[in-house]
Design a protein that fits this description.
Elements lengths: L1 H4 L14 H5 L5 E6 L5 H10 L16 E5 L5 E5 L14 H5 L3 E8 L5 H17 L3 E8 L6 H21 L7 E5 L6 H11 L5 H15 L5 E3 L6 E4 L6 H22 L16 E5 L5 E5 L4
The protein binds guanosine-5'-triphosphate.
InterPro entries: Gtr1_RagA, P-loop_NTPase, RagC/D
Protein name: GTP-binding protein
GO molecular function: GTP binding; GTPase activity
Length: 301
């Protein structure tokens, strides 16, 4: 099969696994945003990590060099946004070890509103290289810009892309490839939900966090509990009940409200009365019209 012939030369440093020393040194996981030009990589990065309103992404310039973002949060990690026109597998000056030689995830963005065959072919070449030399990289595919598609067309596009990738990888001898797919758009919460799933896989303590949250949920009679990163509104963990999107969206909006109110009242003003005793961690709740209560509790690190 042609795909195998197109593999680049084996990287000089050879196959690399994440050693226990890497983990103990606390090497920061890396999220690599790749895909064709205009597929939406920079938009995703800006909306999720820099609170850019989705409509402003219309004015983003094309990325010409790798943009590296260092995110300091519940877990420090890096986001690398690649220029779409860069054929990094075919460019001899690019050292693949520098890109993939770190624990992390490759997030491949496919524009579902455009012709995606070229993108799928490039993704397959990339997967074949990455799985061979850098098995510590999770492969995550964002079938993106689905806001413009009808429900039925969305479903068909999803099936078609998954089928093409699976078939080509099978033909190349890579069966049951651990590739994960998400339907995403920056115009709703789907991209936050997808990033949550991608990042959760990189958190070594995930199962402990999930167990603790499930105990809390059961003991307190909560319907659903999420542990959010306030800045990005990615959820780091939740209890084991299925994710309920409307509930996730409400919690996410509530965080925005609380952050805005906190900012309003955090300014020092000469006429303002001195503050009384303050709680160290924020805590707040609201009762909605249907009597549902959202309760927010800030956790320290
Ligand atoms: N409808 C829709 N448009 C989107 C979405 N995400 C991004 N876009 C638009 O897609 C266009 C390209 O987005 P970019 O983020 O610049 O794409 P890129 O992949 O970073 O492009 P390069 O830097 O050239 O590689 C912009 O006009 C965005 O507004 C989405 O979810 N839905």
């Amino acid at each position: 099969m042609e795909v195998t012939d197109q593999r680049p030369q084996r990287p000089t440093q050879g196959r690399r696994r994440l050693s226990s020393t890497d983990r103990s040194r606390g090497a920061k996981p890396r999220l690599l945003l790749m895909g064709l030009r205009r597929s939406g990589k920079s938009s995703i990065s800006n909306v999720v990590f820099h609170k850019m309103p989705p409509s402003e992404t219309l004015f983003l310039e094309s990325t010409t060099r790798i943009q590296k973002d260092f995110i300091h949060s519940f877990m420090d990690f890096q986001v690398w946004d690649f220029p779409g026109q860069l054929e990094y597998l075919e460019t001899p000056t690019i050292d693949l070890e520098t890109i993939f030689g770190r624990h992390g995830a490759l997030v491949w963005v496919i524009d579902a509103q455009d012709d995606y065959l070229d993108s799928v072919a490039r993704l397959n070449r990339t997967i074949l290289t990455v799985q061979q030399y850098y098995p510590n990289i999770n492969i995550e595919v964002f079938i993106h810009k689905v806001d413009g598609l009808s429900e039925e067309y969305r479903h068909d596009t999803f099936q078609d892309i998954v089928q093409r990738i699976t078939d080509e990888l099978n033909d190349a001898g890579y069966e049951n490839a651990p590739v994960y797919y998400y339907l995403t758009s920056i115009y709703d919460y789907s991209v936050f939900e997808a990033f949550s799933k991608v990042i959760q896989k990189l958190i070594p303590e995930l199962s402990t966090l999930e167990n603790l949250i499930t105990i809390l949920t059961n003991n307190c009679g909560f319907e659903k509990t999420y542990l959010f990163d306030v800045l990005s509104k990615i959820y780091i963990a939740s209890d084991t009940r299925p994710v309920d999107m409307p509930c996730y969206e409400m919690c996410s909006d509530y965080i925005d409200v609380i952050v805005d109110i906190s900012e309003l009242y955090s300014w020092d003003h000469p006429d303002r009365k001195p503050k009384g005793e303050q709680l160290r961690e924020a805590e707040s709740h609201v009762v909605l019209h249907d009597q549902t209560m959202i309760h927010l509790m800030e956790m320290n690190k």
